[in-house]
Automatic annotation (TrEMBL), chain A:
Keyword field: Cytoplasm, Hydrolase, Proteasome
Lineage: Bacteria, Bacillati, Actinomycetota, Actinomycetes, Kitasatosporales
InterPro entries according to UniProt: Ntn_hydrolases_N, Proteasome_alpha, Proteasome_alpha-type, Proteasome_asu_bac, Proteasome_sua/b
Name of the protein this chain belongs to: Proteasome subunit alpha
SUPFAM superfamilies assigned: N-terminal nucleophile aminohydrolases (Ntn hydrolases) (SSF56235)
Family: Belongs to the peptidase T1A family.
Xref: NCBIfam families: 20S_bact_alpha (TIGR03691)
Compartments where located: Cytoplasm
Its job: Component of the proteasome core, a large protease complex with broad specificity involved in protein degradation.
Activity regulation details: The formation of the proteasomal ATPase ARC-20S proteasome complex, likely via the docking of the C-termini of ARC into the intersubunit pockets in the alpha-rings, may trigger opening of the gate for substrate entry. Interconversion between the open-gate and close-gate conformations leads to a dynamic regulation of the 20S proteasome proteolysis activity.
Main localization (coarse): cytoplasm
Single GO biological process annotation from the record: modification-dependent protein catabolic process
Pathway assignment: Protein degradation; proteasomal Pup-dependent pathway
Automatic annotation (TrEMBL), chain B:
Protein role: Component of the proteasome core, a large protease complex with broad specificity involved in protein degradation.
Enzyme class label: hydrolase
Signal peptide span: none
Main location: cytoplasm
Active site: T53
Catalytic function, reaction form: Cleavage of peptide bonds with very broad specificity
Enzyme nomenclature, EC number: 3.4.25.1
Pathway named in the protein's UniProt entry: Protein degradation; proteasomal Pup-dependent pathway
Source organism per UniProt: Kitasatospora setae (strain ATCC 33774 / DSM 43861 / JCM 3304 / KCC A-0304 / NBRC 14216 / KM-6054) (Streptomyces setae)
Propeptide positions: 1-52
Gene Ontology CC terms, in alphabetical order: cytoplasm; proteasome core complex, beta-subunit complex
GO biological process, one term: modification-dependent protein catabolic process
Protein known as: Proteasome subunit beta
Keywords from the named record: Autocatalytic cleavage, Cytoplasm, Hydrolase, Protease, Proteasome, Threonine protease, Zymogen
Amino acid sequence: MSTPFYVSPQQAMADRAEYARKGIARGRSVVVLTYADGILFVAENTSRALHKVSEIYDKIAFAAVGRYNEFENLRIGGVRYADLRGYSYDRADVTARGLANVYAQTLGTIFSSVGEKPYEVELIVAEVGRTDADDQIYRLTPDGSVVDEKNAVVVGGNADSIGNYLGQRHRAGLGLAEALKLAVDGLARDPNGGTPRALTPEQLEVAVLDRQRPQQRKFKRILGGQLARLLSGDESAAAEDDSDASADTE
Amino acid sequence: MEANLSGTGRLPAAFLTPGSSSFLDFLDSHAPQLLPGRRALPEGMTIEAPHGTTIVAAVFDGGVVLAGDRRATMGNVIAQRDIEKVFPADEYSAVGIAGTAGLAVEMVRLFQLELEHYEKIEGTVLSLEGKANRLTTMIRSNLAMAMQGLAVVPVFAGYDLDLGRGRIFTYDVTGGRSEERAGFAATGSGSVFARGSMKKLYRDGLNGDQAATLAVQALYDADDDDSATGGPDLARKIFPIVSLITEDGFRRLTEDEVAEIAVSITDQRREHPNGPQAPLL
């Protein structure tokens, strides 16, 4: 039997990180940013059924880019974790920080185990608080690092350039329509400085964690007509009641 | 296993295994000790625990009403005066429970979670029929306890978005499920009297307010003849729980709204203790 080539741990980790990063960079971005009433999620996603943004628990949502089967697996694991924890203790004991830790441990173990290929995913776990000061956004990278983010964060392809754009323009207390417009402008930008693309409502997946929602579950998808009205800058659409409630908990 | 619930650590394989959208199935494979049905009493043993009593439901134009009294009894003692026995199951359905209070409340919690879990995993809601069937499974798993006197007998009511109307399902302790096509149903110790009351008062084409009044009348009649059912407690201001489920979703009537109905019924009963009269022919 021939002796395997020696690869230094540094090199092995760098290779794995590079592999995961490349996988993630192929995907379109997801933007998560705070606005006056909570946290807004905007993804470029033409599918109606395969979601990049999902509800995990009452005040916690999940956004991901990268390999669908891998992040879907993590999403379901997260829902099971949250539901089991809420059932064993209390709904209030399910927190984004706890969930982020579990994801970090899971990703980190997979990343550094020799037998498994690293996950090509980048996740965001966000929790809406009672006030904007209590909002929490965590970004998780494939190696299991957790970054505590503020205001606006982008994952996926062109994350850096979109992140810079948002970072300069985001301010506290944005209305929903303003925040959505900012996010969409960010996503539509050409990283090489060309003309921005035009993104239609059909190409976007939009959801919010809205602290003003009377229900215990604060996650709500913004769909169809309401999305189109918000995109056209109609701030009153933001105050729309959950009359199409069948869709809101989807 | 416990360590992974309370602290951090990699998600156990069971969490990341693709499979069922059911929280019950997940619990069954991963943490079976948390399932209510898995707790068996020693053979031949019975324990006395607080029991909840009467739940009534009635269909009206555009929805369904589900209401329950507030009394829990243990033998001939009133164990609790303000117990809640009517709960939203999800946006468009609710469950009312009679039977052993502790188990019933736990079962409702698990049922709510089951529906929510499915909704989050699948990205769509179960049909009303599907929800009713999930409840069957849960009651069936409780059969061993029911045989030892710890039965849970729910009424499940919801607005069927596909059919555009309210529906009621009742259960027996074995999980036997039946849809109540007469438009009204009752369960629990006072149900005989409540059902008799509704049989006389119920008619097609009721609106939501009338259905709520009907439900409170039936609970009043159950209280009148069944010692385990509590009527409106005017002194303590404890009134029945009345909830309406319509196209707009679940709504529990506020304390004031129920108080108004209860007080007007109580006033009227001072004149006519047996309540409204139905024509002989």
